[in-house]
Amino acid sequence: MLFLVGKTTPMELHSLADASHITMGTAGQLVFGLIVLTACMTTAVGLLAATSEFFERLLPKITYKMWLVGFTIISFVLASAGLSTVLKVAVPIITFLYPIAISIVFITILTHPLHYSMQVRWTFRLGVWVASIWSLLDSDFLWHTGLHCASDGLGPGQDPTNRLDTTDRCRSIDRFRDRSGLF
């Protein structure tokens, strides 16, 4: 049904809320909004509960309710900052962590029949260290944190009049990337 709406509606249609309003009127738009609100709230409550429970087990001196209130405030502040700000912070971190997580999952699947002998522990450690170094060098983490030069010679938050300092910090990383041919 939505593909038909997309095919037959004018170009002013920008969101699913607009599509629901065109196809089902104001009542449809209200129902669609309630469905989205319910889906987001159940996800938020589940994430807050799971995170608070995890950190309570990790640090039992701080109660579950304190963790819950703290994570709720942090979530509210992040949500108030806007999606573009959240993505500017989250994307470099996620790009750094994904290769590490994928390595851990892959090693776990491959080594599960070995029942976690001592050699397998070193496999995990070696795999995580290699993935961490590779991820640090290959991801945009260095670029977004200002540890590398942007294309114009500036890292985030750098003074445009001081290009030499920023460029000097990046020279060794650039040389490694150029010589290795890996990136």
Outline:
This protein has helices at residues 2-8, 16-58, 64-81, 83-111, 118-138, 141-144, 163-180. With 183 residues, the protein is mostly helical.
Word description of this protein:
This protein is mainly alpha-helical and 183 residues long. It has helices at residues 2-8, 16-58, 64-81, 83-111, 118-138, 141-144, 163-180. It is built from 7 helices and no strands. α2 (16-58) packs antiparallel against α3 (64-81) and α4 runs antiparallel to α5. It is extended, with a radius of gyration of 24 Å.
What is the strand and helix layout of this fold?
Elements (H helix, E strand, L loop, with lengths): L1 H7 L7 H43 L5 H18 L1 H29 L6 H21 L2 H4 L18 H18 L3
Helix pairs in contact: 2-3, 4-5
Give the end-to-end Cα distance, rounded to a whole number of Å.
44 Å
What is the number of helices?
7
Order of helices and strands: HHHHHHH
The radius of gyration is 24 Å
Percent of residues in helical segments?
over 70%
- Fraction in beta strands: under 5%
Structural class: mainly alpha
- Uncertain runs are 147-169
Would you report the number of β strands? 0
| Overall spatial form | extended
